[in-house]
Design brief:
The protein is of the alpha/beta class. It is about 35% helix and about 20% strand. It has helices spanning about 15-25, 45-50, 65-80, 95-100, 120-130, 165-190, and strands spanning about 5-10, 30-40, 55-60, 85, 105-110, 135-140, 150-155. Helix 2 (about 45-50) links the parallel strand 2 and strand 3 (about 55-60). Helix 1 packs parallel to helix 6 (about 165-190) and helix 5 (about 120-130) crosses helix 6. The chain is globular and about 50 Å long.
């Protein structure tokens, strides 16, 4: 069976992108990564991807209307034949129009047990709330921030003396395990006849 073509959007070092790429190189993976794109031309993850032969695209949004910037990203994704998009540390909010064009075909990994702590500073918020468990979630991207259908979660205990940094390190380890597995499960379930 032909592998699904996955595009990944990043803004930084791309550690979750790397875990997706590594998982895609197994024989039983249902996807291949055909493009890594970033809003930051100096993102370290772009170099990592390029060194492994993955096509990259970088476009800074500075000085551009949002619609024009997103049109450039959209064009690059479509030229690469991308069928689905994984956000992996992509730090820009996508417009409703962009999400609508890719409806049901964008996933994100978020460092909290959604629906708790949408948005930023998730680990600080979990510690301030006195939570005993934290974690990460993979969800479908919709027009509402961090509110789409949950596809999978992983939990980590909050330990005595945890700081936002120490908790983030342990949650990230789980992200690297969870994201490739959930993306594979999601793409294995796809009915391609219903793709726009």
């Amino acid at each position: 069976m032909a592998k699904r073509k996955l595009g990944i959007l990043i803004s930084g070092r791309g550690s979750n992108m790397a875990s997706l790429v590594e998982a895609s190189r197994t024989n039983d993976s249902p996807y291949e990564v055909v493009l890594v794109a970033s809003d930051k031309p100096d993102a370290a993850g772009l170099e990592w991807a390029a060194e492994r032969g993955i096509p990259i695209f970088a476009q800074s949004p500075k000085g551009m209307p949002k619609a024009e910037y997103e049109a450039a990203i959209d064009s690059a994704l479509r030229k690469a034949g991308v069928e689905a998009i994984a956000l992996a540390g992509y730090m820009r909010l996508l417009s409703d129009a962009f999400v609508g064009r890719w409806q049901g075909r964008i996933v994100n990994i978020h460092p909290s047990l959604l629906p708790k702590y949408k948005g930023l500073d998730t680990h600080s918020r979990a510690l301030e709330a006195g939570d005993t468990v934290a974690g990460c979630s993979v969800h479908i991207v919709t027009e509402e921030l961090d509110a789409g259908e949950l596809l999978g979660q992983a939990e980590v205990p909050v330990l005595p003396g945890d700081t936002p940094h120490s908790l983030a390190v342990r949650v990230l380890e789980q992200e690297h395990l969870l994201y490739p597995r959930v993306v594979a499960e999601w793409l294995n379930r796809w009915d391609c006849s219903r793709l726009p």
